[in-house]
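Submission checklist for the structure archive. All mandatory fields must be present; incomplete records are returned to the submitter.

[x] Identifier: Pimeloyl-ACP methyl ester carboxylesterase
[x] Organism: Flavobacterium nitrogenifigens
[x] Residue count: 288
[x] Sequence attached
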Amino acid sequence: MAKKAINPTKSLKIPKIIIISAKICAFISTKLVTKFAAKIFTSPIKHKVPKRELEMDSQSQQKLVYVPAIDKSVVTYIYGKSQRKVLLVHGWSGRGTQLFKIADELLANGYSTISFDAPAHGKSKGQTTIMSEFIASILEIEKQFGPFEIAIGHSLGGMSVLNSIKDGLKVEKAVIIGSGDIVQDILDEFIFKLGLKKEISIHLRDYFESMYQVKMDDFSAYKAAQKVEIPVLVMHDKDDPEVSVKAGIHIHENLKDGTLFLTEGLGHRKILGNQNVIKKILDFIKNA
């Protein structure tokens, strides 16, 4: 059975009704608000596929893949027919087609891509998920579609790529974009966004550690980075409002063979479609 870990990337604006509900729960009891926060933290939002992603969606060969380690299935997208394969991993509340501009450029340069809707995301079933389910999905997809030359992950996908490499994913290079870093920092930020007292984040950490029998910090990106031997390109926007640029800088500091590329004014998602960013990715992939 795959090790369990929470999903550490909640930094979008939280609806007022959820904030009010959290405060009511906190008034009743610490145990209740901790369970409520855990439920919200592990529940992604399923967004409708935007028009810009429809071409990749329609041109991909889609397969349902069962992941035995978590007893769940994920929808995969095989885009292109080249044997030079690149794995793409979306972030929290994302989709397998979200990195379509990167995928299109890779196809134009002789690669094919494999991506997937993580559990409870996109076309994959479920309502809740956790980071270890991303990792388990990646490792199962490698078994069925690999080997991959490159792995590229955005946000939680970046953390998942680093942890997957630590856990045995074999790739020649990796690219992580806007990745989160320290799990406790992400929990603290989430609890702050809910308008709750800081000590609730400690209760939340303890709740997850008790439930899944793991240490949450073991899934922090910087710790995984310390065990990654391959070249890794770390990309992060200085103005990212959801994941502070300090996360990317800290991950880079812990890599043995890392390259740091910082952008400005692109935020957390526009960075995925920026031509300078895509050119940097291609240059990194192609150059020894």
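[x] Structure attached
Curator remark: The first strand starts at residue 61 and ends at 67. The beta strands are 61-67, 72-79, 85-89, 112-117, 150-154, 173-177, 232-237, 258-263.
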